[in-house]
């Protein structure tokens, strides 16, 4: 059984009367006739913010601006060819700034419509769209789901979950990147790539414990970022077209313990530690850690 991974961005857009904008899958899509929030796959090297704006224009003719990040999801779907696809989905709230509503031609959608809240439940919806809009949907299982990760080629798109973690005293939890890994010696947010079939929240809890020995509670979303490095070197110096998409959560560690790495030797984390904000300010930080700290003051 073939396994696939993709990352995508979608937008919830409502009219002044509360209608929601949806698009219908065309014959060129995996699920023809099924309705979805406008959006689609994140191109290699593209920021998810740019994806949702681009996809809205392509599928609906409308220009939109982002007003917030609503949620981040992950799900599995069995495709018509029998393969199983894991999709990480970033869901934004957006509002229309211009353009004229029209249908997409020769794409993966064929209709774009404003739909009232009473009509939404009567449409066949992709499960993630139904969940975001609060519509009950069938949660039929996928049967046996293959283990492992999709085969990597020369182009890599990785989805990761990271923690901007603090304790009741206001200290910040950081990890130092081990030698032999990109950013060696810099202090970073705890977290890492999500596994096949794993939600971002599950990945975050796993990574937080493996890298720092902490158990935390997600209290909000701190932001979405990405890093594109087309010249990155993979194992044995093999070049990779590397693109990482990152969701940063605000995490409260209500009962902190001494920070210690529990993952197996040879991992990317050399050590973990708690710092005051003043101490963190003077550390050599990764751009992800620095930007997250700046955004939260």
TrEMBL record:
GO molecular function, one term: hydrolase activity
Organism from which the protein derives: Actinoplanes utahensis
Keyword Hydrolase: yes
Domain Nudix hydrolase: 3-138, 154-297
Protein name in the entry: NUDIX hydrolase
Keywords: Hydrolase
Known cofactor(s): Mg(2+)
Similarity comment text for this entry: Belongs to the Nudix hydrolase family.
């Amino acid at each position: 059984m073939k396994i696939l991974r993709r990352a995508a961005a979608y937008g919830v857009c409502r009219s002044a009367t509360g209608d929601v904008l949806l698009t219908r899958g065309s014959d060129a899509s995996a699920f023809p006739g099924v309705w979805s929030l406008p959006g689609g796959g994140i191109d290699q090297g593209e920021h998810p913010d740019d994806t949702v704006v681009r996809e809205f224009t392509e599928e609906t003719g409308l220009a939109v601006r982002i007003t917030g990040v609503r949620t981040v999801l992950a799900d599995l779907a069995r495709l018509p060819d029998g393969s199983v696809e894991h999709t990480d989905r970033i869901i934004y709230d957006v509002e229309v700034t211009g353009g004229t509503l029209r249908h997409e031609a020769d794409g993966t959608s064929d209709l774009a419509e404003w739909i009232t809240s009473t009509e939404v439940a009567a449409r066949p919806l992709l499960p993630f769209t139904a969940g975001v809009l609060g519509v009950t949907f069938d949660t039929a299982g996928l049967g046996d789901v293959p283990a492992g990760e999709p085969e990597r080629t020369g182009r890599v798109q990785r989805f990761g979950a990271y923690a901007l973690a603090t304790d009741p005293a206001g200290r910040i939890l950081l990890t130092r990147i081990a030698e032999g890994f990109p950013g060696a010696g810099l202090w970073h947010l705890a977290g890492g790539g999500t596994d096949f079939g794993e939600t971002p929240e599950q990945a975050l809890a796993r990574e937080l414990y493996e890298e720092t020995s902490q158990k935390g509670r997600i209290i909000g979303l701190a932001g979405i970022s990405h890093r594109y490095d087309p010249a990155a070197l993979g194992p044995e110096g093999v070049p990779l077209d590397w693109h990482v998409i990152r969701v940063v959560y605000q995490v409260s560690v209500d009962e902190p313990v001494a920070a210690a790495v529990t993952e197996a030797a040879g991992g990317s984390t050399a050590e973990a530690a708690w710092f005051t904000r003043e101490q963190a300010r003077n550390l050599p930080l990764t751009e992800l850690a620095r930007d997250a700290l700046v955004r939260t003051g």
